[in-house]
Amino acid sequence: MDIHLNNLTLSYNQKPVVQGITGTFATHDLTAIVGPNGAGKSTLLKSLMGLHKPDEGTCSGCAHCTAYLPQLSSIDRSFPINVIDTVLLGHWKKLGPFKRVTSECRQQALEALAQVGLQGLEKRPIEQLSAGQFQRVLFARIQLQNAPVILLDEPFTGIDLKTVRDLMQLVQRWKTEQRTVIAVLHDLDQVQELFPNTLLLSQTCIGWGKTSEVLTPSNLQKTWDSLVPWKN
Fold it and tell me: What is the side-by-side order of every strand in the sheet holding 56-60?
C-alpha cells in the first residue's frame, strides 16, 4: 500500500515542525525517519496515523490500516492490567468493545508472546516489567493487529541490547511478510544495518530515498546545521 505525502506541513504547539514534505514511502519495505530533536519526526508519524491534522497539504494511504507504537516514555504503566490482557488489546479493531475474547484470540496472544520471548509472564502486571520486557509486550500486541503498515516511534530507545537485537529480528520478519514499516530512529548504525530507505528530516526534507544515498556526510551536515530549539 502506497503512503503519499503531498506538500505536507505540520505544526506542534503552534510552531511549524514539518514544512512542505512531498514523497512516497516504499511499499513492503523498511524506512527510517532520522533527524534531530525538533525535526518533526514524531509529529509526522502521528499525521500518518490520522492523529495530527495538517496545516497544509495531504497525507494519504494508511491511517485505517496501521499499527502504531508510541515512544516508550510516553506510556503510563500504572494502569492495573497484566501482560496477556495488554497483548489482547491488539484484537480491539476486530472485537470492538462488546465481543468476547475467544480461545483462538487468546492462543494467538500466547503465540505472539512466545515470539518475543515472554513465555510464562502472561499474568504479570505490566508495572512490574522492565522497560525491555514492556517493549516486547507492545511488539507482541502489534503482532496481533496484523496491520499492513507499522509505525514505530523510537522503538529501541531505553531498552537493553538483547531486547534491541530480538526486536530488530522481528522487524526484519515483518519485511519478509511484506509489511511496510516506518520507524523513527536515532542510531545511524541501526539505520544503515537494517533500513534500506531513509527520510532525513529537519523540518524540511534533507533527503529521502536509499539509505546509502541519503545518509551522506553533506546531508548530515545540512541536518545538524538546521537544528531548532523546540522538541517534536
Answer: 15-25, 3-12, 56-60
- At 44, list the grid cell: 509526522
* Residue 197 near residue 187, CB atoms below 8 Å: no
Tens digit of pLDDT for each residue in 68-90? 999 988 888 888 999 999 999 99
Domain spanning 3-225: CATH superfamily: P-loop containing nucleotide triphosphate hydrolases (3.40.50.300)
Instruction: Name the pairing type of β-strands 15-25 and 3-12.
Output: antiparallel
CA neighbor of 74 nearest in space, from 35, 49, 46: 46
Element (H, E) at 16: strand 15-25
Domain spans, the chain: 3-225
pTM over 0.70: yes
Rounded to whole angstroms, the Cα distance separating 64 from 127 reads 30
pLDDT of residue 232 exceeding 50, the answer is no
Q: How far apart are CA 33 and CA 215, in angstroms?
A: 11
Cell matching residue 93: 479493531
Helix or strand holding residue 199 (H, E): strand 197-202
**pLDDT for 200-226, tens place per residue?**
998 899 999 999 999 999 999 888 776
Q: Which residues contact 15 (CB under 8 A, 6 or more apart)?
A: 230
Locate 51 and state its grid cell. Answer: 492523529
Residue with C-alpha cell 465481543? 99
